């Protein structure tokens, strides 16, 4: 079976990202991700960078020079093996000060060969949908890491209380329902990229 991972970029203790990921991967919300992927026999697994707790990137050897998974740090070797086991990635990123979070950049920079050529879909969120974070992440993944990135980048606008307040999305994630069309377009383009590789 083809395997895809949803990588949650925020590592905040009570991140909106975790709640949005639950919404996106649930079969009991209007999220089109589970049904579109299942209809192509593609499984979806959530990866929480918060749970992985990767060390900060401090290596002298550039990952480009390493044959996976032979990294000096065991946590990074595990990360390498995990990433290698997937056929594609959906990155879920918040916008922090017009960019994407350091936690996600750190997770990307630890590896190289594991990402190259793999299909990707970027889903962002923020006050106005986090489009600037998505644009940055697209440059890094499509350019620096040579991934095959979907053009469409669904951008989920958060209600004002979520952006400024200490509380996260709360249990009521119904404000996400209006993005079903954008998400469907994005995931269908992503699936086409995943299937292209198999042919
Ligand atoms: C350090 C920081 C910077 C932020 N900068 C932006 C921003 O530039 N644009 C925006 O729309 N929201 C911004 N926000 C609001 C976040 O998009 C919002 O808090 C979101 O819930 C953060 O995602 P997370 O909870 O999954 O970490 C910022 C939040 C933080 C913590």
Automatic annotation (TrEMBL):
It comes from the Eukaryota. Residues 2-153 form the NADPH-dependent FMN reductase-like domain. It holds the Pfam family FMN_red. One of its GO terms (molecular function) is FMN binding. Coiled coil: none annotated. One of its GO terms (cellular component) is cytosol. SUPFAM superfamilies: Flavoproteins. PANTHER family: CHROMATE REDUCTASE, NAD(P)H-DEPENDENT FMN REDUCTASE LOT6. This is NADPH-dependent FMN reductase. It comes from Sistotremastrum niveocremeum HHB9708.
